[in-house]
Amino acid sequence: MRHFLCVNDLSKKEIDTILNWATTIENGWEFCRSMNNKCISCFFAEPSTRTRFSFERAMHWLGGRIVTAADASASSSLTKGESIKDTIRTIGQYSDAIVMRHSDPEWPEIARQYSRVPVINAGSGSGEHPTQALLDLHTINQKWKTISGLKILLCGDLENGRTIHSLMKLLYLYGCEIYHCPAKINYDDSDYELSLPNKYLEEIPCTKVQIDQVNDIIKEINVIYMTRIQKERILKKFGQGDIDFFKINKNNIDLINKQAAILHPLPRNEEISEDIDDDPRADYHERQVRNGLYVRTALLDYILYNNPIYFSNGNNS
Ligand code: NCD
Asked: Of 46, 51, 155, 195, which is most buried, counting CB atoms within 10 Å of its CB?
């Protein structure tokens, strides 16, 4: 049984396998194995649009079935005080795998310990979001036909953005040069940075760029990865502080490398102006979102069978 609770749960070879499979799926592979006897539970105790829809569509696409709780923080027995551990054990009795999102960053380790079926992390508070990182990596690879050696700039709320935490581990694994530009918040007359947590900075070399210096370096950057300010997570700590962060708009779009990919896990707030959505470098609305479907289809196939069908067909050398 394999879980996918953090990006380290898959080897580089397995990730390559899954992303190759995603490409095959996109190119119209005829599914020769039906999942109609398999069922996944989608348990989302935090809001979601892309992640839940793409997982559910992926399972439908594979011919499988789903049971779903889109608003589990209000509609499940969590509201009656049921623990995450009991919830996971219960759902596992009704499905072959669980796709779960919850605000507690520790829930994946509870799942690892107690689940009898594979569990996929679809977001763990401000911890990780490993499936988003897979599809982001896939999108970067499609755009540049390589990953190693690329310069990637991570912008926004780097403290709370879970997609960043998972992605930076993969970028490091694949040999990227990582730059980061954290948002700043002024609260009680002091400046505070929404910076990458130390546990990541200690392990992964990254170069910091100040907000007012980004325009000077963006010609050299291959991928700009924007994220929103996670107001729902920082409000408890800072109330309504003044927030400053790097933004992409008409004023600086021409400074960006002509081949760059501009990515965003979405939802987008003010960090990317809507009037650059049609720029050919803006890959967040279509390419990146669609890759969520292909990559999650490939991942479900891998996790549910742990042996993608194309192994037996000899397509993966
Ligand atoms: C993100 C998430 O939920 O972590 N979105 C996503 O899953 N595509 C990003 C966010 O909430 O800012």
From this structure: 155
User: How many whole angstroms separate alpha carbon 267 and alpha carbon 249?
Assistant: 17
Distance in Å, CA 310 to ligand 1 centroid: 31
- Find the length of the chain: 317
Rounded to two decimals, what is the model's pTM?
Answer: 0.94
Q: What is the best residue among 103, 129, 263, 287 to mutate for testing ligand 1's pocket, by most ligand atoms within 8 Å of CB?
A: 129
Nearest atom in ligand 1 to 51's CA = 7
Write down the mean pLDDT value for the chain: 93
Contact (Cβ atoms closer than 8 angstroms) between residue 66 and residue 36: no
% of residues, the chain, pLDDT over 90: 84
**Strand locations in 21-114 (E):** 39-44, 65-69, 97-102
Model confidence at 310, in pLDDT bands (50, 70, 90)?
A: very low
68 part of the active site: no
CA neighbours closer than 13 Å in the CB half-sphere of residue 130: 19
Cβ pair 115, 85 in contact under 8 A: no
99 forms beta bridges with: 42, 120
List pLDDT tens digits, range 54-92: 999 999 988 899 999 999 999 999 999 999 999 999 999
Q: What is the pLDDT of residues 244-287, one digit of tens each?
A: 999 999 999 999 999 999 999 999 999 999 999 999 999 999 99
> Is ligand 1 within 6 A of the CB of residue 50?
yes
The single residue listed with the structure tokens 């799926």 is: 25
With contact defined as beta carbons under 8 Å apart, do 50 and 292 qualify? yes
Which tens digit of pLDDT belongs to each residue from 125-143? 999 999 999 999 999 999 9
How far is 55 from 124, CA to CA, in rounded Å? 16
CA atoms within 13 A on the CB side of 174: 27
For residue 221, give the nearest of 260, 182, 170 by alpha carbon.
260
* Ligand 1 contact, 268 CB (< 6 A): no
Q: Could you tell me the distance, in angstroms and rounded to a whole number, from the CA of residue 266 to the centre of ligand 1?
A: 6
